[in-house]
Amino acid sequence: MTWVAVLLALAGLPARAADADLALVMAIDVSGSIDPGEYRLQHEGIARALENPAVLSAIAGGPHAAIDATVMEWSDRDKQVVIVPWMRISDKASGAAFAAKVRAAHRTSNGLTAIGDALLAAAATFKTLPDHPTRRVIDLSGDGMANIGPKPADVRDALVAQGISVNGLAILQNEPWLSTYYDQNVIGGQGSFLLDVQNYDTFAQAMQEKLINEIAALPAHRKRIGRARGPAESASISNLTQMQ
Questions:
Q1: What percent of the chain has pLDDT over 90?
Q2: Residue 53 in contact with residue 95, Cβ under 8 Å?
Q3: Alpha-carbon distance values, 234 to 55, 142, 209 (Å)
Q4: Does 10 fall in a domain?
Q5: Residue 77 above 70 pLDDT?
Q6: How many CB atoms are located within 10 Å of the residue 43 CB?
Q7: 3 belongs to a structural domain
Q8: Parent domain of 35
Q9: CATH of residue 180
Q10: 67-74/80-89 β-pairing
Q11: Which tens digits make up the pLDDT trace of 204-233?
């Protein structure tokens, strides 16, 4: 093959996307314990966070000034569905476009709570990325412990060994002890952290704070973001307590 032919062949290949600072899978619990109102609050929380100036400022402050994000719903062992495919977020317009897709999504399942399978499915989505992000993070939110499928801790450990970090957002409305469970069985990896939310009404602000911490990649190996105890006390989210 001549050099001309090689150049022509390369010209026909799709352009490789520029690298992003973060590839983030937001994995949302849609198991049977989530009622329609709670479902909408989770989605609206993500949408508002990606429209928030503070979150967009954190994205703009990164070396590549961009992140890749996707949203996946999960419940039972075979119930993991990507409702927003990978999108590049780098400015107000792209953040608004992502938020619009989140709001337009419809519930995909209503089963048991298979956290281990959810983590595996979330990790598999990284294989479809067109670029090579600096960091890969799974952001798993839920309101209950796993009751079916592989042990979350075993899956978490395998993903951490691959360089994937897992952060958790534990909604304590139904199971007040869930924070300890997530801390021991779900979160892990470099910079991993857990955020506790007392109820769904504080989910939007919690997601905003969580995204800022994920995007900024704060240096602590593991930290807990202050618990939101209800609408009147949601400002307490901003208090950070280091965990050793």
A1: 52
A2: no
A3: 17, 19, 11
A4: no
A5: yes
A6: 24
A7: no
A8: 19-242
A9: 3.40.50.410
A10: antiparallel
A11: 777 788 888 788 765 444 445 544 333 333
Q: Establish if 98 belongs to a structural domain.
A: yes
**CB of 136 within 8 A of CB of 163?**
yes
Is residue 179 within 8 A of residue 196, CB to CB? The reply is yes
pLDDT at 80: 96
Using DSSP, state whether 55 is helix, strand or coil. helix
Averaged pLDDT for residues 190-208: 80
**61: exposed, middle or buried (C-beta count within 10 Å: 0-12, 13-18, 19+)?**
exposed
What ranges make up the beta strands (E) of 90-190? 136-142, 164-171
- Closest Cα to residue 214, out of 141, 105, 107? 141
d(CA 135, CA 148): 29
Please report whether residue 29 resides in a domain.
yes
Q: What is the pLDDT of residue 226?
A: 47
Residue 193 Rama label (left phi>0; alpha psi -120 to 50; beta): beta
Structural domain count of the chain: 1
Bridge-based pairing of strands 22-29 and 164-171 is unpaired
Q: In sequence order, which residues have a C-beta less than 8 Å from that of residue 78 and are 6 or more positions away?
A: 117
Going by their DSSP bridges, the two strands 67-74 and 164-171 should be labelled as unpaired
**Are 80 and 242 spatial neighbours (Cβ–Cβ below 8 Å)?**
no
83 is written with which tokens?
């409702």
Check whether 64 has a pLDDT greater than 70.
yes
Residue 10 CA, chain-centre distance (Å), reads 35
pLDDT value of residue 147: 94
| CA-derived radius of gyration, the chain | 18
